[in-house]
Prior knowledge:
NADH Oxidase; disordered C terminus; binds flavin mononucleotide; 7 helices; oxidoreductase
Amino acid sequence: MKEAEADEWQESEEEVEHIPFSHSRYPEKEMVKKSQEFYELLNKRRSVRFISNEQVPMEVIDNVIKAAGTAPSGAHTEPWTFVVVKDPDVKHKIREIIEEEEEINYLKRMGPRWVTDLKKFRTNWIKEYLDTAPVLILIFKQVHGFAPNGKKTIHYYNEISVSIACGILLAALQMTKMVTKEVASVSFLIL
Ligand SMILES: Cc1cc2nc3c(=O)[nH]c(=O)nc-3n(C[C@H](O)[C@H](O)[C@H](O)COP(=O)(O)O)c2cc1C
């Protein structure tokens, strides 16, 4: 991006209204209790490879995504897009794309060391759960944005910002006792 374009965006951002910070502090004992409970909750999270087909309320999905969207981001660019997929045909197409990429990962792309390191997980490129799960949340990073005048804007630390949002999403899902599955093999699914 040229400097002049960045300056233009910078100026328009200066007009943004200040959001006041509100905060109330817990007594020390309460802090310890809450931190212990939160740790215990998160310590129960597991990456499972079998997922129930039981429907989940969309309100829950909306809320966990809203929670993820509270993440900090480089220069407050919020460089993420969450896409919720429920349609069985679309889910199946996603599964096909991922399995095709994963097969290449296992058979040639990642190499024998990776395949050996993964042996303990007993995984392969077949991902039935992508059909079974009632909802898939696809997370995209936005490598740049657009200013109101249509010019490209920089999304600083976009991958780190999206990773933090993913972490919050996982924690929010754990609060609901729903399970999640990370799939890193295809770049458009995670990061
Ligand atoms: C970035 C990332 C990529 C991952 N990719 C895969 C994957 O492709 N397939 C898979 O079965 N698990 C994947 N996992 C899950 C890890 O294997 C899992 O987090 C790890 O074994 C620890 O287990 P836990 O999540 O149950 O604590 C991934 C996790 C992360 C954070």
